[in-house]
Design a protein that fits this description.
Strand 2 and strand 3 form a beta hairpin. The chain is an alpha+beta fold and 102 residues long. The protein starts with a strand and ends in a 5-residue tail after the last helix. It has a 3-stranded antiparallel sheet, with no helix packed on it. A 3-stranded antiparallel sheet has the order 5-4-6.
Length: 102
């Protein structure tokens, strides 16, 4: 379901609102980073960033900062949000946001 931030003035364009899987705050989608899960060769999944928001598959949204990434990893939020089993690898996100939260 797409949620929109509707303003009282009819002339403004509606914007999408999403929830960060780390801090659970609702924010405009433009301020969040979309991530998707991709299968890794041996087994398991890797969480990869989708800054252009064009990759196929179910996406999750995250503030692009180390605190939210750390919260999402500790809470195991990527597995639930992306509907994958096991512990997804977040190395690509760690490199992007400059975190060592693993």
């Amino acid at each position: 379901m797409v949620q929109h931030d509707l303003s009282s003035t009819g002339g403004e364009r509606a914007t999408k609102v999403r929830t960060c899987v780390g801090c659970r705050q609702r924010t405009l989608a433009a301020e969040l980073l979309r991530v998707v899960a991709r299968e890794k060769e041996p087994s398991g999944f890797a969480v990869i960033p989708d800054p252009r928001r064009r990759l196929p598959g179910r996406g999750a949204w995250l503030h692009p900062n180390p605190e939210c990434l750390g919260l999402a990893v500790r809470r195991r939020a990527f597995g639930r949000a992306l509907r994958v089993t096991g512990y997804p690898d977040t190395t690509a996100l760690d490199q992007l946001v400059g975190s060592t939260a693993q």
